[in-house]
From TrEMBL:
The lineage of its organism: Archaea, Methanobacteriati, Methanobacteriota, Stenosarchaea group, Halobacteria. GO terms for molecular function: methyltransferase activity. It comes from Salinadaptatus halalkaliphilus. Residues 1-21 are annotated as: Disordered. Residues 1-11 have a biased composition (Polar residues). PANTHER family: TRANS-ACONITATE 2-METHYLTRANSFERASE, TRANS-ACONITATE 2-METHYLTRANSFERASE-RELATED. This is Methyltransferase domain-containing protein. It comes from the Archaea.
Length: 244
């Protein structure tokens, strides 16, 4: 079945951490992304302006703690690091050992001692800290259980903190829909894309607020900003908690 905007988030997954289908998807992701890691540099700048606008929407400040989910070779690091400075902390997670090696090499090359790259499954990873913001660019839709991944993200961001997601989907409307079968197969082959998932529906199910702030490529690419409700304050407009 091709996913649509109306596909229910939680009913659409047949994979959960611990089951065989989940493990098979994760292992295929590892193989696919290990393989593409050598070539990713050829296309990583294609989405750069979209990624940077998504990061701008996080309204990051010096000293912020940021989580990057499915970081690949670290394409977001320089821009996030520019915003949070040397006082901030960027923690990035990726499941592909080859992507992680490339991300760590980027960190070493720049001498960023406040950027940490962890090789982990973003769905089941646990952190000791809570983050002021999170970003997932082109990564959630390749994961086996998006609802569970987003629950993990939700647990690790402070209430009211923004989560920026850039992702792709079949064209939602217009003539580009005719290309959906091709788009679908291409994503599946290229990225181990998960056709049973609807990332936007999952975002809306897991977070209290979620807004699509930008679309590109006939709606195939979108940027969403989500957050949990916070009765005390909501970033970016409110003042920071000095005890965070
Ligand atoms: C299309 S790349 C996106 C990389 C980068 N965020 C970007 O914007 O270009 C997808 C990344 O998600 C990672 N990934 C896939 N499943 C994952 C999982 N369960 N946990 C962590 N990372 C995962 C892959 O290894 C790959 O590096």
């Amino acid at each position: 079945m091709e996913p649509t905007e109306t596909t229910a988030a939680s009913d659409s997954s047949d994979k959960s951490p611990g089951d065989d289908a989940y493990a098979a998807h994760l292992e295929r992701s590892r193989r696919v992304w290990d393989r593409w890691s050598d070539w990713y540099g050829l296309s990583e700048s294609d989405f750069e302006p979209i990624r940077e606008r998504a990061i701008d929407r996080l309204a990051l400040e010096s000293g912020d703690r940021v989580l990057d989910i499915g970081c690949g070779p670290g394409v977001n690091f320089a821009y996030v690091r520019e915003k949070i400075g040397s006082a901030g902390h960027l923690v990035a997670v990726d499941y592909s050992p080859e992507m992680v090696a490339k991300a760590r090499a980027r960190v070493d090359d720049h001498g960023w001692d406040n950027v940490e790259v962890r090789r982990a499954d973003a769905t089941t990873v646990a952190f000791d800290e809570r983050f002021d913001a999170a970003i997932a660019t082109l990564s959630l839709s390749v994961m086996p259980d998006v609802d569970s991944t987003l629950e993990t993200v939700r647990r690790h961001v402070a209430p009211g903190s923004p989560v920026a997601v850039v992702d792709v989907r079949p064209a939602p409307s217009g003539p580009a829909r005719l290309l959906n079968p091709l788009i679908w197969r291409f994503f599946r082959w290229y990225a181990n894309w998960n056709p049973e998932q609807n990332v936007l529906a999952s975002l809306r199910a897991v977070f209290d607020e979620c807004e699509v702030v930008e679309t590109n490529l006939a709606g195939v690419s979108y940027t969403a900003i989500c957050r949990t409700a916070d009765s005390r304050e909501t970033r970016p407009s409110g003042p920071r908690d000095p005890n965070r």
